[in-house]
Amino acid sequence: MRNAFAVPFVVLIFSTMTAPVEAADKALKEADLKALLASGKTLQLGGKGMGYSGTLDLSADGAGTGSAKTDDGTVINISGSWKIKGDKFCRTWKDLDGGKEVCETWRLTSPNHVDVFRGKEKIGANSW
User: How far apart are the first and last CA of the chain?
Assistant: First the structure.
């Protein structure tokens, strides 16, 4: 009888040890992005070693406002709109990227942090 409990216990321990690794470093899908941003969200942008840091308020109605400061002290104001298109977060900031829409893939690296990619190029990081 003792062995009957050993196998499920070992499986349970192995499952809980590997689950966080599987959850990390995955591209957020459309449903994940919608659930994350459904009621709006304040994001922390960049951070140590990224060359910039700031905050961005995303409202549930698709507006975004905030600012970031580069390591050299330059302040970048952010305002415009955002939406989810398939598995991408698409944004159009008035004073960045020539006012053109940029669609990003967000890769979850921990429960409250994503690395941001445009194509295969990492262009930033967000946390909340």
Answer: 47
Query: What mean pLDDT do residues 14-18 have?
Result: 34
Closest to 66 (Cα-Cα) out of 76, 33, 36, 74 = 76
CA distance 17 to 113: 20
Q: Which has more pLDDT, 13 or 81? A: 81
The pLDDT score that the predictor gives to residue 23 is 54
**Structure-model confidence comparison of residues 13 and 58, the more confident one:** 58
For residue 3, the one-letter residue type is N
Q: What's the topology of domain 25-127?
A: Lipocalin (2.40.128)
Is 43 within 8 Å of 126 (Cβ atoms)?
yes
Residue 30 CA to residue 14 CA, distance in Å, equals: 29
DSSP letters along 40-80, please?
-EEEEEEETTTTEEEEEEEPTTSEEEEEEEETTS-EEEEEE
The yes-or-no verdict on residue 8 having pLDDT over 80 is: no
Region of poorest pLDDT, from 11-15, 50-54, 111-115, 119-123: 11-15
Element (H, E) at 98: none
